[in-house]
Amino acid sequence: MTNNRYVLDFVKKYQDLFQPDKVVWIDGSKKQKRELTNEGAATGEIIKLNNRLLPGCIYHRTAVNDVARVEDRTFICSRKQEDAGPTNNWMEPQQCYKMLDDIARGSMKGKTMYVIPFSMGKIGSPFAKYGIELTDSIYVVLNMLIMTRVSPKVLDKIGDTDNFTKCVHSKVTLDLENRYICHFPEDNTIYSINSGYGGNVLLGKKCLALRIASYLGRQEGWMAEHMLILGIEKPDGDTKYICAAFPSACGKTNLAMLIPPAVYREKGYKVYTVGDDIAWLRKGKYGQLYAVNPEFGFFGVAPGTNSKTNPNALATTKRDTIFTNVCLNKANKTVWWEGLDQPAPTKAEDWKGEKWKPGMVDANGKPIPGANPNSRFTAPIKNCPCLSKEFDNPKGVPISAIVFGGRRAKAAPLVYEARDWKHGVFVGSIMASETTAAAAGKVGVVRRDPMAMLPFCGYHMGDYFQHWLDMGKKIKQKPKIFNVNWFRTDENGKFIWPGFGENLRVLDWIIRRCEGTVDAVESPVGYLPKPEDINLEGLDFSIEQLKDLLEIDRETWLEEVKGIAEFYAKFGERLPKELTKQLKELKKRVRAIGKETQNK
Ligand code: GTP
Ligand code: SPV
Ligand code: MN
């Protein structure tokens, strides 16, 4: 497919190391996809689903110990350890390559090595970055065909240069103890072994489009962020675009595809999806910030997706979709997961492949789920009923607002606005969220996750904060920056805010703030909405409840300040002075809570 010496040398090098029986180049054709699907079905790697009910859909289970990203086994192997920073695992690159080579030597004997030329971003667009992934997994190939743009045109665009990300993947033996997801930013190389799961192996996604791209973006003056992109068309026909960074499994896909509440629909509001996980941002025309979604599909969380929470996602998964680790309905070869508003199947296999019935409990009386909590669908973006017509625009869409958010049972209010760009960078940098099943490890523990990038920043996070501050200097028409929290809970641990489609009510306030048509009130953390300015029409939710959601509690925030100071201390000299200053000011304002009212 190519005469490019760099590409051929790269393929040859790993062919010699892994010793596959054959090498197959992936061309993106329907015919090849069909053949690979048939081959995967013949070996049992995948199961074809009911072609009448779910045309073109397939099912796959990953190994039981391999169902999420492995952050403790993910490494940034920059030449100098200090360049990886205190938030990344690090290994010396040459030592790391050698270790990986030794583990994976001969791993493809008797197997096929697939060579996948892919593009993140529209091929030929100024945003596009090209990669070549080597893998021994048909499942990875079929996912990459959905999630990225796979085509021989990628090789044409690479031409005779070495301007592509080298992506190396082998399942080896799926041994957890020897599982490594390693990034070599200075070599534009990713090397992943002993996993077969999503973010660990679809190397275009978190590995290239965030870790490597964030490194490239800093050098080249742009940004790679863990953000959804959505467009809100207002009744006057004007569309405003918003980016939002929430940590894994904290609501990006849901927000990106939201269906407006009836009162908004009746007025003519429409919401369009540009992306649900990753945004690449650049300075565009007239000093605005422009965003593209470099992906070509969705790798979405299945549990909780239903016809009420996210009907658009459900519709997107009705054809040509891969379901991973959900519950398999054996009676009619369809799929099911917890939170789907359809009766659970009675003749089924759970995500581990074991016989499963609704209501089953384990030895401790705990319900046994049919689907893994991090089970996923891989669906073509073109299936999405609310896909923005700007999705393929090579220039991207102009961004009016950037929204940060996470899962916080207490501290963060429903929404607040940063005072300016610098304060907004501070607000992003102090983000924290409860951990979810998207990564291996404990669930529900609050951790600092700046800009939702903690597991995805490919270099020193202090430098990353500085890059955000520098971008603000370049962009004349700066988006306003906000923070939201859909996850405050009441004394019974129940979510107070109804969330999902109703979140548009908050986005509506955000847009009006961007247009300058609504007021806000000062608070220690930033500008808060006046409760009466959040539209609650048609919603069974009182203004008193809303006031509770907007409350800034002194004790809670004093704790926050302490937590932030501890987190910041990790960065030493590489923490921008501006952020130290911002933290001091926050502390002063939080300490004063209650004082001003006492004086009045
Ligand atoms: P990744 O794909 O891991 O990056 O996740 P994501 O950020 O796209 O999260 P997603 O939209 O898939 O939502 C994750 C979980 O949060 C699902 O179980 C949703 O049902 C739930 N969720 C999403 N939005 C809301 C919300 O507004 N309120 C509440 N209570 N839950 C939500
Ligand atoms: C995430 O964890 O943020 C995901 C899923 O989007 S994965 O591709 O596994 O990273
Ligand atoms: Mn994600």
Structure description:
This protein is an alpha+beta fold. It has three domains: 5-45 and 73-220, Phosphoenolpyruvate Carboxykinase, domain 1, CATH 3.40.449; 225-293 and 391-591, Phosphoenolpyruvate Carboxykinase, domain 3 (Alpha-Beta Complex); 298-383, Phosphoenolpyruvate Carboxykinase, domain 2. 30% of the residues lie in helices and 21% in strands. A hairpin with a 5-residue loop joins β21 (348-349) and β22. α2 (30-43) runs antiparallel to α5 (138-147), α12 (421-429) runs antiparallel to α13 and α12 packs across α17. The N and C termini lie far apart (77 Å). Bound molecules: guanosine-5'-triphosphate, sulfopyruvate and manganese (II) ion (MN). Guanosine-5'-triphosphate binds next to α9 and β17.
Compact description:
By secondary structure, the protein is an alpha+beta fold. It is 30% helix and 21% strand.
In DSSP terms (H or I, runs of 4 or more residues), the helix count works out at 18
Helix content: 25-40%
Let me know the average pLDDT: 97
User: Which strand-content bin applies to the residues?
Assistant: 15-25%
Low-confidence stretches: none
* CATH topology-level fold name of the largest domain: Phosphoenolpyruvate Carboxykinase, domain 3
CATH class of the largest domain: Alpha Beta
Please tally the β strands and state the result. Answer: 30
Question: Gap between N and C termini, in Å?
Answer: 77 Å
Oligomer: single chain
Largest sheet: 9 strands, mixed
Which architecture of the largest domain would the CATH scheme give at its second level? Answer: Alpha-Beta Complex
Kindly provide the radius of gyration, computed on alpha-carbon positions and rounded to a whole number of angstroms. 24 Å
Structural class: alpha+beta
Shape: globular
